[in-house]
Specification:
The longest helix has 30 residues. The chain is 79% helix and 0% strand. With 250 residues, the chain is mostly helical. Helix 3 runs parallel beside helix 7, helix 4 runs parallel beside helix 7 and helix 6 crosses helix 7.
Length: 250
């Protein structure tokens, strides 16, 4: 209970900081909608995807995209806190390292959940059809992915302590990860060598799992593999984050 209270305190502090910048909130809400409105209709004309399943293919990809480029880039914010001494002052308090990490991660998950609700709602207006249980299962996987990416990003931010090092590392890794995950288009459309290569990308399994869930297909190999990958990523990245915060405190 003590750890939970500490986590909520850090989360509340981070959320208050977020609400100070209204433009960030507005852009965070509008940006995901633009992905659907500007890019989604183009896929309806692409015969390889099929107009009947376009939104069941594209919306899951957008959800993973939001996790990758939202939670995955949250480490930028902690770099300034490290440099200004905010993190150091928080370390001298009795707050657990888990709470320091998960309080910040929880804010990213809350933002990701809000964006996911908006994306799914707009998707339904544009023609998406998916069952409630499928959407719920997909959101759980997105949350697990968000926890993993946010923890990893925060760990890198604390360890590197420099935007000059952090930015090129993430930007150079994000594009190939996004493309090889099949976020925009299914990797089934790719050449065989590229399809095989994409199986080295953990996000590929999560994207495929969410697409099956949106199609109300629950007992599939893709769902099992995607769930296992999401859980393992979350556990490993959270453990890495706690270790990084503790190491920096030593």
């Amino acid at each position: 209970m003590k750890t939970l209270r500490e986590t909520l305190l850090v989360f509340d502090n981070q959320l208050r900081f977020t609400f100070r910048y209204k433009i960030t909130i507005v852009l965070g809400m509008v940006q995901p909608v633009l992905y659907l409105l500007l890019f989604g209709p183009l896929l309806t004309k692409l015969g390889g995807v099929g107009s009947g399943n376009t939104w069941q293919t594209f919306v899951p990809g957008v959800l993973v995209y939001l996790a990758l480029f939202g939670a995955g880039f949250c480490g930028f914010g902690i770099i300034s806190d490290v440099r200004s001494g905010v993190i150091e002052r928080m370390r001298v308090t009795p707050v657990s390292r888990f709470a320091l990490l998960m309080g910040r991660v929880s804010r990213e998950v809350a933002i990701l959940l809000t964006q996911s609700v908006i994306i799914v709602s707009v998707g339904f207006l544009l023609g998406l059809r998916a069952g409630f249980l499928g959407i719920l299962g997909a959101v759980v996987l997105v949350v697990l992915l968000g926890i993993a990416l946010a923890s990893l990003s925060l760990s890198l931010g604390v360890a590197l302590k420099s935007e000059d090092q952090f930015a090129p590392l993430l930007t150079s890794a994000a594009l190939p990860v996004m493309l090889l995950a099949g976020i925009l288009l299914p990797m089934d459309l790719a050449p065989k060598w590229l399809d095989y290569l994409s199986h080295l990308n953990p996000l590929r399994y999560i994207v495929d799992a969410i697409r099956d869930l949106f199609a109300d297909q629950f007992a599939t190999r893709a769902v099992l593999e995607g769930t296992c990958v999401a859980v393992v990523l979350a556990v490993v990245c959270v453990a890495l984050g706690i270790r990084t915060f503790s190491k920096e405190n030593a």
